[in-house]
Amino acid sequence: LAQARVPPQTRPAASRPRRVDAPGEQKGGGTAQDAPLRPGAAMPSALKARRGRPSVAEMRADLEKLRKPTARTMEAIFDKYYRIAQSATPPLKEIEVQEPQINWRAVVMSLPKPQCFEVLGCGIHKVLIAETECVYSGVYRFHVQRLDRTRAVFDFRDAYDDPYHAYKDKSFAHDVELALRAAVVSQLVQYKEMQMELVSHISGVILPWERAVVQHFPVTLHSLVDAFFNEHQLKAEQVKLDFDPDHGYRIKDPDLLDRWRMYHRAQAHYRIISTDEAMEQDHL
């Protein structure tokens, strides 16, 4: 009994219980990986297996090169080069995008099918931001110049049409008006062809075909669009758009498109002016 009351510190070493270390654990706690390597000591097997191989951060960086950039990055690139093009006098028609860190193939292949294959073609030589040929002037888009020197236009927002982005859920009023104007271009051309003589309504000068412009007058196209939306209780943001290679955008809903064409044919009035006079007008 007297021996049982002796504190453990005062017991003989032979009578103390021995502590068994866990596999791979150093004396005093910790593992072999935590303990610093002594000079001349053998490298642990786990570190030996990783020797000469890339780290986790390096492997993640390599994977990021294969992915398309974020939508915010693409917006910043477009705004950057658009401002450069507009700051020149006169504004540049096109400018090459110098962003070597961007995986343009990943961006193009994220476009809806079959547009992605049509834009990619035989391969990407370079990417530009250029003015798009459409009924509006000053509309810029990304252009891919392929290896065979042909070009294709695309809207980068189409590559981010997923649950995490809302580019297509809410349309921009400018793009909607662009699509509505493109939908009635044939009516403007028909009016121009029906004129016996193309005479400017402002100056009275007889104009050749290529210098004659059809203008909505006295009611502007913008006012017609507002009246159409009010009649159908719509907002421009609610109109769904699709990509159009000729005009930039087109109305996605065929019923709405037909109603707009019928409304425009019944309500629109025009006049002929010259290209120089059109440059001074606020609306066409």
User: Biggest sheet: strands, sense, closure?
Assistant: 4 strands, antiparallel
Structural class: alpha+beta
Shape: elongated
- The helix fraction, in percent, is 25-40%
Spans where pLDDT lies below 50 across 5 or more residues: none
Q: Which whole number gives the mean pLDDT?
A: 81
- Strands across the major sheet, in which order? 1-2-3-4
**Rg from Cα:** 35 Å
Into which percentage range does the β-strand content fall?
5-15%
- Span of the ends, CA to CA: 111 Å
Q: Order of helices and strands, N to C?
A: HHHEHHEEEHHEHEEHEH
**How many beta-strand elements?**
8
Helical region count?
10
Question: Helix and strand layout, with pairings?
Answer:
Elements: H1 45-50, H2 56-64, H3 71-87, E1 94-96, H4 104-109, H5 115-120, E2 124-131, E3 140-146, E4 151-154, H6 173-183, H7 185-194, E5 212-216, H8 221-232, E6 241-244, E7 248-251, H9 254-267, E8 270-274, H10 275-279
Antiparallel strand pairs: 1-2, 2-3, 3-4, 5-8, 6-7
